């Protein structure tokens, strides 16, 4: 038997799901049937994937009948309920929620870093990391393989779309209200003008907001702890020192991170450039004399992790400073999900031929 | 004799000069005559200070006749030429340019941290720090006094006005062009639309730009080295480990910094809060459960250094994470200049009574 695997896309109508359908239409076509699944609210809609109009079916046990691989891009609680059901029906689930990432029986996979972990999946579920972790981890993983990572101190510049479509809509609406004004010079003038804060705890237009996610112990945000916990798990460094401060900025899509990375071994900028240039999925743009460094406006809509501003710390020959940008909807979500699913598809094909 | 000192404001018509005149009109009135000085282009304009319309005179040796204190808010090369001339005429110069900050015979002063240094001024010149350093150093100085600072790792979120009025104009113009569009989702769409980048090396609307200042050795920007050199000098810690990554964000005014500060002694969040709450010039706003943390939109137009998101590093009992905001035109420039000048004025009055 030599068939291509059947794929289900759960959450096909969401922000990440939309990018996933685009990617499935442009990447190598490893899939047989592609079934689109969503909540009752979106079921019945017709979406185009691989040039074919496809009706969205409602999320149900029956939706997973005959499915080999299921990608989930839905809220944590929906994944928590439905991923085990899909797995019980025989699908390998690639889940982009936070529900399973720290489950010791669920691998957390970035194919460029730990593709081998895909095989250890006792629950039939593979987790996709949080978009902030994903925006830097391919570059960090490549440097770790050479220098041996010992510490990460990260400050993020996170885009509105990390908070979903409502984040994007909120920022666009706020920008319309502040454009053409002289706001942003008196305390609270922006706050009083922008109206609805949407999913953010403060205005995002003409502002930066040092908060993402929900409050956890000792003043940390859930987003900051994800960067810590997920980096440790992906890199298989359970004792890695990680500190993150997550900040939202008025950018539509593409997360940026300022990273201080300390290693076991001495580093040089030349060697770091060489490693990053040969790393799959990484592009180096690092020539400030010519104005070359990554910015979200140039990186959005692209697949790689972009790295620039590579410097060796002046006080520490073992530490590098980097500025990293990655599209949080692509490598940060949909692309990595697709890549994991393709690893599983290749395994499926190998075992069925 | 019991007269008040005569003040000259050099660069009275610039972005910082404008804020200075506002401050001189609202702070305690320690000055006798206030003379406004500017380039030939602006001379003859009439500006209001302390409710009195005052004609701007042209920058010349004669302008410093009888002046006791001269505040300079002009480009580096203008200060380099004219500050020594004003000093030779007997004025104490408080200079906000970068021309003298690292001169060992010129003190670099933040009154809350090292007011005593004002007295050691063999050249008759006192320097005001760079706005990025100033936006955090009052809070850091207070923590250092208690815990003993050993390392700073800083990522900045710097406002457009740090690049002068042309930075503000550029951002406002770019925002008008992107508001109401669906830009920010395709590579380069913002770049192609915003037109002039003004003083920035890339678009600033819907973007963040990891660059401020000019290129120095080994890929560092001048702004990043200023944070390092000036923090060391102000805190009198010539060996302090300092690493900065400076990033411009689409905010009009108020710089923010994500700071990882390591100390000689163990820290607690409670003790840090207590120190910061009692530190002159610092306001603590740190209750994420209630959405309380500093943001530029709330801090702009205010005098203090605002501190929030205080956390102890999970891997290091000697390190604190902070998110700090300060108005870069006020404490970051005009206010600190005015405060230094007031220290000199008090000294003048004491020596003349």
Verbal overview:
- The structure is a homodimer of 353-residue chains.
- The first copy, chain A, contains ten helices and 14 strands.
- Helix content of chain A is 32%, strand content 20%.
- The first copy, chain A, is of the alpha/beta class and 353 residues long.
- In chain A, helix 1 crosses helix 10 and helix 4 crosses helix 10.
- The interface between A and B is large, with 75 and 75 residues.
Number of helices of chain A: 10
> What value does the Rg of chain A take, in angstroms?
21 Å
Q: What percent strand of chain A?
A: 15-25%
**Which pair has the most extensive contact?**
A-B, 75 and 75 residues
Subunit structure (chains A, B): Homodimer.
EC number (chains A, B): 1.2.1.11
Pfam family, one (chains A, B): Semialdhyde_dh
InterPro entries (chains A, B): Asp_semialdehyde_DH, Asp_semialdehyde_DH_beta, NAD(P)-bd_dom_sf, Semialdehyde_DH_NAD-bd, Semialdhyde_DH_dimer_dom
């Amino acid at each position: 038997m030599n068939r291509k695997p059947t794929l289900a896309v759960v959450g096909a109508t969401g922000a990440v799901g939309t990018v996933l359908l685009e990617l499935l239409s442009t990447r190598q076509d490893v899939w047989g049937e592609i079934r689109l699944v969503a909540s009752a609210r979106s079921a019945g809609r017709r979406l185009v994937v691989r040039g074919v109009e496809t009706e969205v079916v409602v999320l149900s046990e029956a939706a997973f009948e005959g499915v080999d691989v299921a990608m989930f891009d839905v809220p944590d609680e929906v994944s928590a309920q439905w991923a085990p059901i899909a797995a019980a029906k025989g699908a390998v689930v690639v889940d982009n929620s936070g529900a399973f990432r720290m489950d010791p029986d669920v691998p957390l996979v970035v194919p460029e870093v730990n593709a081998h972990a895909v095989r250890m999946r006792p629950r039939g579920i593979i987790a996709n990391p949080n978009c902030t972790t994903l925006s830097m981890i391919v570059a960090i993983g490549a440097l770790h393989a050479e220098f041996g990572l010992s510490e990460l101190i990260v400050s993020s510049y996170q885009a509105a779309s990390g908070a979903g479509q409502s984040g994007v809509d909120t920022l666009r609406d706020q920008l319309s209200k502040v454009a053409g004004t002289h706001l942003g010079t008196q305390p609270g003038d922006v706050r009083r003008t922008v109206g609805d804060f949407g999913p953010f705890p403060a205005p995002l237009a003409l502002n930066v907001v040092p908060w993402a996610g929900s409050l956890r112990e000792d003043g940390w945000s859930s987003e900051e702890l994800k960067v810590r916990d997920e980096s440790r798990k992906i890199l298989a460094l359970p004792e890695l020192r990680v500190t993150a401060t997550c900040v939202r900025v008025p950018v539509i899509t593409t997360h940026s991170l300022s990273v201080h990375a300390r290693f076991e071994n001495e580093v040089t900028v030349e060697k770091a450039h060489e490693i990053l240039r040969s790393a799959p999925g990484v592009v180096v743009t690092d020539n400030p004399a010519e104005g070359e460094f990554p910015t979200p406006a140039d990186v959005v809509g692209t697949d790689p992790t972009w790295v620039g501003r590579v410097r060796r710390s002046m006080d520490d020959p073992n530490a590098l400073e980097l500025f990293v940008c990655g599209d949080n909807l692509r490598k940060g979500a949909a692309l990595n999900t697709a890549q994991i699913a393709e690893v599983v598809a290749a395994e499926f094909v190998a075992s069925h031929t």
